[in-house]
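Pasting as-is:
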Amino acid sequence: MAPRRVLYRPEFVAGYVRAYRQAQADLHDLHFKHMCQMADLRRELDVLRAELAQLRELDTVVRARQNAEIEVAELRRRREIVKAFGAERDPAAPLQ
């Protein structure tokens, strides 16, 4: 039987190992950068959620004030109607 022929030389395999390790290191760096970006985005999202909660609270207060103003206007209108019905008209005065 003939001796087996060497298909891969050690320096050839070492080049692939170096390339594989470099690719692993690059992927690790990319993963770290993505995790940092995600952390930054999560912090920004938390800030925006807090602002949204404040805006919703402000909207609730503004709507309550507007409803109170509408109610006050309605009560004043009713008061004027009651005053008008209670007022006595001078029969000698001309109708307008």
